[in-house]
Amino acid sequence: MKFQDYKYERPNYGEIKKSFLDLVNKIKTADNYKDQHTYIMELNNTRKHIETMSTLASIRNSINTADEFYEKETQYWDEYGPLYTELNSDFYKVIVNSKFKENIINDFSEQFYKICEYSLKSFSPEIIPDLQEENKLMSRYTKLLASAKINFNNEELNLSGLYKYMLSQDRKEREESSKAYYNYFEIHEEEFDEIYDNLVKVRHDMAKKLGFNNFTELGYIRMDRTDYNPEMVVKLRKQVLEYIVPLCNKLYEKQAKRLSLDKLTYIDENLEFLDGNATIKGDSSYIIENGIKMYNELSTETKEFFDFMLENDLMDLETKHNKSAGGYCIYIPDYKAPFIFSNFNGTSEDMDVLTHEAGHAFQLFMSRYIDMQEINFPTLDSCEIHSMSMEFITYPWMDIFFKEDTDKYKFAHLTSAIKFLPYGVVVDEFQHIIYDNPYMSKAERKAVWRDLEKKYLPHRDYDDNKILEKGCWFFKQGHIFKDPFYYIDYVLAQICAFQFLKKMEENKENGWEDYLRICKVGGTESFLQIVKTGNLISPFDDNCIEFIIKNLEMNIEKFEKNL
């Protein structure tokens, strides 16, 4: 069945609640595990249907934020989502208090049981109004980004549409398009400030009501981080500062020379070559056509997966007016279907989407046998391993997309992945500081951001851009607003993905088997367990970054020779 034929119908909360609680009671009072398991699976069908309806509304609203029907449905889910969370909380209580704990762990995994425990710690009916307010603020942020209409080059563009001009070989065009882009954030500075201020405060209030000292503690619980803590993350940030920041400084110095610039400024950072970045030698249909060839040749599993995505129209890829910014992959449980959303913008990043989001979708496809929404996806730190590693696993096919620009693409892709790590820790440390100090003024928050940029991104020069010099770059970083603490996950996963690059170079068959294994376990294992399953070194290991950096430098040198 094609995505457009997936039926959406707003659930009747009153009816759902009655049948839901009736089944919760049956699970609670079951005197043998066989009956309890039957009721758990019956209730799970209801839970999957609720999740499916919520997901369909979210996808269709993000495809067209001006669609009045799905805007109203998004408002419904903003309001009722926390009420459904409350029902789920009742389900988690009977799971955690079940006298058949060992049976549940055997059937659904210890990770599932821990997630149920964590979900109870992160929810109470008392915070429902706060969750509703949080949802409304996040929707307001999404709409503020998506509603940008910027006149540039005789076109009316959204923020994604401007990006190709920000990569122009013509420095004046880069400068003017960058100014037009950030001018939108300057015009709406007060609104972005207000939304974030309210989000920080409502999240802090929730944390206090749940018995935590601050939202940092609650944030880790909400992210289901069952096997690492903030102290371990601090050690990782120090490794990035010690080993990766100096490497990045060298990369930026070389980049300035390649671009014949005395100094690199923010408008130049994303342009790697004076004659332009690598370009895909065709339009979106060309990308898909070659994507079919790539995934057909990679493995029988990836062929089956990509055929499924195409046959069921499970990708919405091209940018258009009123479409939400960014890209994501999500799972529609009733149809056992992953869905990929993105904004193709005519740059090499379109390739990254095809590999990155497809990595997420492939993992979901390989673990469709898992019938519990808590463990379809692994925790976010783990699921980013699948997506980021797929970007490297597909390197042997890049020539069919980029032709003579292949080494250019690989060089830029690899170095940008390395350069990402310091930025990733800026986002993470920023959020730790903000949520540890929730009553900071708006100006103080922006100053914190700018100070962290100077620490981890010492090369960054904003020239005469006052809004960025003030510390407003983070306005564009959606995770900070909508997915608090979801960013160090990318750093952890990127470090694991670099290891998959090394594995695939040294022994492709073994590397692919390791990758396939971590896809198949879905979310039944925690982050550090998945690292072990994939035969990876933990990013928290003191020697991990030192171990991978030699291979990274070797690859950079190899690609540089062919530029």
UniProtKB/TrEMBL annotation:
UniProt-listed InterPro entries: Pept_M3A_M3B, Pept_M3B_oligopep-rel
GO molecular function, one term: metalloendopeptidase activity
GO biological process terms on file: peptide metabolic process; proteolysis
Signal peptide: none
Family matches, as NCBIfam families: M3_not_pepF
Stated name of the protein: Peptidase
Species name: Terrisporobacter othiniensis
